[in-house]
TrEMBL record:
Molecular function terms from GO: kinase activity
Protein name, entry field: HipA family kinase
Keywords recorded for this protein, A-Z: Kinase, Transferase
Lineage: Bacteria, Pseudomonadati, Myxococcota, Myxococcia, Myxococcales
Pfam families the UniProt entry points to: HipA_2 (PF20613)
Organism: Hyalangium rubrum
Length: 260
């Protein structure tokens, strides 16, 4: 189960994020990078962050701890920036955050150090599975911390949810954007990564991840009369996408062959 904390202090915005994430302090004295439900594309980004982050962890990849964060908009009462005040007001209630990793640095594919082939392959395979379009050389969304790679920011994953038309059919796509993945040059063990993906992401793991979606994040969607049916649609996509792993792994191998 994910822990739930309450935000007690707004520390600073992270201006590099288009949706204005921020560092906040919580009632457990921890610092977290908070993603706001009132920003950009709303709770769907938080759903992608939650599901992808938890499934990445199940696969054995390093992801900072995710926590639910209760936010009272009064937190921003003294904030001089009107945009931030509006964001806090629009985000009252349950939000999502990840543990802040102090002293971490952004992964640089030029400066290195280079990842091991199996780790790079596991990450490429996983990102192809969740259709993460945002792990590129310009925006790797990975941190070096204590000598290891940590994955952050999965809000651009699972973009099918922004248009549910034909979503199950679209789950079988090859995912051409994998050609731009920052770790593709090192991903020489993609078939072993695919086997790990299918081994670790069992039906029970997928069900637990989807069950964690809070009711209040499930906005009204045409075609889903209830929140249970809405959750079931996420689960169906994850299952169908996993079954399509030979398709997206073949695409990743093809893209890598052209890349190198």
């Amino acid at each position: 189960m994910l822990r739930t904390v309450t935000a007690t202090r707004y520390v600073t915005p992270l201006r590099e994020g288009g949706s204005l994430p921020a560092i906040v302090e919580a009632d457990d004295a921890g610092l977290y990078v908070l993603k706001f439900r009132g920003a950009g594309q709303g709770p769907k980004v938080l759903i992608a962050e939650l599901i992808a982050g938890e499934l990445a962890r199940a696969m054995g990849l390093r992801v900072p701890e995710l926590v639910f964060v209760q936010l009272d908009p009064v937190l921003g009462r003294a904030e001089p920036d009107g945009e931030i005040r509006d964001l806090l007001k629009a985000s009252a209630g349950l939000n999502l955050a990840m543990d802040y990793l102090p002293g971490s640095i952004t992964f640089d594919p030029v400066a290195g150090p280079a990842p091991e082939a199996q780790e790079a392959s596991n990450i490429v395979c996983f990102d192809a599975y969740v259709t993460n379009v945002d792990r590129t050389p310009k925006n790797p969304n990975m941190l070096h911390w204590h000598g290891a790679l940590w994955l952050i920011d999965h809000g651009a994953s699972m973009y099918f949810q922004h248009s549910w038309d034909g979503y199950l059919e679209r789950s079988k796509t090859a995912f051409a954007p994998i050609k731009d993945h920052v770790l593709l040059p090192w991903a020489t063990a993609l078939r072993a990564a695919e086997a790990l993906l299918r081994e670790r992401l069992t039906p029970e793991v997928l069900e637990r991840a989807v069950a964690r979606i809070p009711d209040e994040w499930l906005e009204a969607e045409a075609g889903f009369p209830s929140k249970e049916e809405h959750r079931a649609a996420y689960l169906a996509w994850l299952r169908e996408r996993l079954a399509a792993s030979p398709v997206f792994i073949e695409e990743a191998e093809r893209a890598r062959a052209q890349h190198v």
